[in-house]
Design brief:
Number of helices: 11
Shape: globular
Order of helices and strands: HHHHHHEEEEEEEHHHHH
Structural class: alpha+beta
Helix content: 40-55%
Strand content: 5-15%
Radius of gyration: 21 Å
Strand order of the largest sheet: 2-3-7-6
Length: 407
């Protein structure tokens, strides 16, 4: 099966709508909430209500965090038809929204990373039960960063409930969300296979938001430290199967990342494209023409640099589309998900900083959003697995080595 690199016809209306929202709703308030860190962007309530309405009517085509579920959709069970489904709709619409503002997209009600986790691994019963929740995702702890297998937060079964204890840091939308997908271990002695995810609601006794972080970028999004002290969670809130399969190892938990990493890659693609679009206009105003019909080495240094940045951006974009397309066509995409995250995350930082350099004083000042996009893009190369972790995962997949064989 071959991937068509043109924008899917059935998604064009959705992408156009996302672009209009980014341009007319997110861009105008982007600087406001970058300055007013920790202030909730109340304008998003209207947008969230619109998205909820589209989801209920089916007009959203599965876009957004809730659209990353793998499964038998569109009534195509057993068919080999090549399709662009909810994963493609999600990454293309997310990229457009991040052309407007990454931080505002990340704090969109009911579109959190936890919602992506629920959509990825929850049972059908859980999907229905947690419908409408706004869920953040809590993985990272003070003792580790990208090595999710080092989780020390515990979930001990006590009757019909799990008792959760631990501390999570860098929880996106940790204060504003009404639930949290918490990664915890059922039994540390069983290793990675015992790590499961639980939906913990904020009203459960023992859940406490300790503080909010002050950050370099995505300042419109709240990032919290949350502690869990003897939090009793119904055992039905464990996402997916409670069985510990030592042979399967960490595969069950990592399935979430196969769907969420292309989404983060799409965020980087959208933010970088915003920088390229503005830089192209600013260069034109300064008398620098970017000629796509002439070799870069025959053009000005500024035009050649711009073409180099745009080429790298295109590579990140295509890898992102490939990972989403494979998910829609039910092909294993762990390798491609990590490749897209690694490439797009790095490209996002390189392109946005490169655009700041090309535009010099204009790029560095707050008169334009270029400096803000450079700050926002850096986190996209870090969370959901750093650049180094993604390269390690890619190496393991390509060489056919386990995590124990290649560290």
């Amino acid at each position: 099966m071959a991937i068509n690199l043109e924008v899917p016809k059935k998604h064009r209306a959705l992408i156009d709508q996302a672009h209009q929202v980014a341009m007319n709703m997110l861009r105008p308030i982007s600087r406001k909430y970058d300055i007013a860190e920790h202030e909730y962007p109340k304008e998003l309530d209207i947008l969230a209500a619109m998205i909820d309405g589209l989801n209920e009517s089916g007009a959203s085509e599965g876009a957004g965090a809730t659209g990353v579920r793998r499964g038998e959709d569109d009534g195509e069970k057993g068919k080999s038809t090549v399709k662009n489904g909810s994963n493609m709709a999600s990454v293309t619409s997310v990229a457009e929204m991040c052309w407007g503002d990454v931080g505002l997209l990340l704090t969109m009600p009911r579109q959190g990373l936890g919602n992506s986790a629920i959509a990825s691994v929850a049972t059908d019963e859980q999907l229905k039960r947690f419908e409408g929740t706004w869920s953040s995702m809590a993985i990272t702890e003070p003792a580790f960063g990208s090595d999710s297998s080092a989780i020390s937060t515990t979930a001990i079964l006590d009757g019909d409930e799990y008792v959760i204890n631990g501390e999570k840091i860098f929880v996106t939308s940790g204060e504003r969300s009404d639930s949290i997908v918490v990664w915890a271990t059922l039994d540390k002695s069983l290793g990675k296979a015992a790590i499961k995810s639980f939906v913990v609601t904020k009203d459960m006794p023992g859940v406490k938001v300790e503080r909010l972080e002050e950050k370099l970028g995505i300042r419109a999004s709240d990032t919290a430290v949350i502690t869990f002290t003897d939090v009793r969670v119904p055992k039905e809130n464990l996402l997916g199967s409670p069985e510990v399969n030592v042979e399967a190892g960490f595969a069950g938990a990592m399935a979430t990342f196969d769907n969420t990493r292309p989404l983060v890659a799409a965020m980087a693609v959208g933010c970088a494209r915003a920088s390229l679009d503005l830089t192209r206009d600013l260069l034109a105003q300064a008398g620098v023409t970017v000629d796509y019909d002439r070799p870069a080495q025959l053009q000005s240094a500024a035009a050649a640099k711009f073409l180099e940045l745009e080429t790298n951006w295109e590579m990140g974009r295509l890898l992102t589309l490939q990972a989403a397309w494979m998910a829609d066509n039910r092909q294993p995409n762990s390798l491609e998900a990590s490749m897209s995250k690694a490439k797009a995350g790095r490209v996002g930082s390189d392109v946005t900083l490169g655009c700041v350099e090309l535009c010099m004083a204009v790029g560095y000042s707050e008169g334009e959003l270029l400096e803000k996009w450079a700050r926002d893009s850096k986190i996209l190369d870090i969370f959901e697995g750093t650049q180094q972790i993604q390269q390690l995962i890619v190496a393991r997949r390509v060489l056919g080595l386990s995590s124990g064989e290649l560290k």
